[in-house]
Amino acid sequence: MSQQHLEDLVEKLSQLSVVDMAKLKEKLESKWGVTAAVASAAPVAAAAAAPASESTEFKVTLEGPIPDDKKISIIKAVREVTGLGLKEAKDMVEGAPKDIKATAPKAEAEEILKKLTAAGAKVKLVGL
């Protein structure tokens, strides 16, 4: 495989959304007959050329206190990223600091961070 072909492949993979990346991971798992842990580590290392010491899994934590004027938009964002019901999401937001996701791949964690900060929340990512 030529260097230019590899560069083109890296560029195309870098443009995938989180949802498309998840679909790609599933297809590769099926085609290659591997588990999620093996399939997710290989493309991340190859596509992103990440150093071995960089975390690939993150804990996403909603930091408190939550500003009253942002509470509704933050609750909506929490519901969107977690799939929780209204009451559960409200309890989570009002109980901040709370873990939104105990473990998430880097791309998913960054997407959650983006959505929650856009809603006005303070979010912390901790590499695992």
Short description:
Helix content is 58%, strand content 16%. It is of the alpha+beta class and 128 residues long.
**What is the name of the CATH architecture of the largest domain?**
2-Layer Sandwich
Mean pLDDT: 81
Looking at CATH, which topology of the largest domain would you report?
Ribosomal Protein L30, Chain: A
**Overall outline:** elongated
Helical stretch tally? 6
Widest sheet, order of strands: 2-1-3
Radius of gyration based on Cα positions:
17 Å
Give, in order, the helices and strands.
HHHEHHEHE
CATH top level assignment of the largest domain: Alpha Beta
Describe this structure in words.
Helix 2 (18-32) crosses helix 3 and helix 4 (71-82) runs antiparallel to helix 6. The protein has helices at residues 3-14, 18-32, 36-48, 71-82, 86-94, 106-118, and strands at 57-63, 98-105, 122-127. It folds into 2 domains: 3-48, no CATH class; 57-127, Ribosomal Protein L30, Chain: A. The chain is α+β, with helices and mostly antiparallel strands. The protein has a 3-stranded antiparallel β-sheet with strand order 2-1-3, covered by helices on one side.
List keywords for this structure.
128 residues; alpha+beta; Ribosomal Protein L30, Chain: A; 3-stranded antiparallel sheet
Secondary structure elements and pairings:
Layout lengths: L2 H12 L3 H15 L3 H13 L8 E7 L7 H12 L3 H9 L3 E8 H13 L3 E6 L1
Helix pairs in contact: 2-3, 4-5, 4-6
